[in-house]
Amino acid sequence: MDKLKNFIDTNREAFEDDLLPEGHFDRFEKKLPKTGKKHFKLYSLVAFAAAASIALLFLFRMPGGTPVPETRKASVQKACSNQEEINELQIYYKMQIGEIMAQMESLYKKEQTPGGAELLQESKKILKDNYMFEETILPTLPCSNDGLFAMNQHYSASVESLNIMLKQMEIVVNDNEIK
Question: What is the SS3 string spanning the chain?
């Protein structure tokens, strides 16, 4: 293969002047397998149906898609025996998160150290993730011990992450005070 390539490269001008014979496109089209327009129409129809199905699925499943009637919300909450426990757990974790964030903000306001703003900004990303969890995932969790477990895992991981950020901010502030 390399010999052929080298030969073509050295004799490039001999190959560039040759014109292809008349009707060479027709010859190659005859050699190609026949594809019917029926396949294209069928493929287009199936692709459209699949796209429409996916769009409808997302429309009905995504928050903000189709609102759940208030009567259905009330019946779901009545049927959920763990709803009170879920609400209490959510309040408990929100209080912990609020306390940690207040500590971080007071540390930052007291000592505006380099790196403190970034830690505070990353902590706010955790708050944003919690908000998205509450808006999208939490309503879809089953009203059972499994749902409570998933919720507890999420919030405890968030609190642990915020505690790590708080410890880092305390270290940054203490290092700044020593200097």
Answer: CHHHHHHHHHCHHHHHCCCCCCCHHHHHHHHCCCCCHHHHHHHHHHHHHHHHHHHHHHHHHCCCCCCCCHHHHHHHHHHCCCHHHHHHHHHHHHHHHHHHHHHHHHHHHHCCCCCHHHHHHHHHHHHHHHHHHHHHHHHHCCCCHHHHHHHHHHHHHHHHHHHHHHHHHHHHHHHHHHC
Q: Which pLDDT belongs to residue 49?
A: 65
In tens, the pLDDT along 118-141 reads: 888 888 888 888 888 888 888 888
Each residue of 3-16: pLDDT tens digit? 878 887 888 777 66
Identify the pLDDT of residue 112. Answer: 76
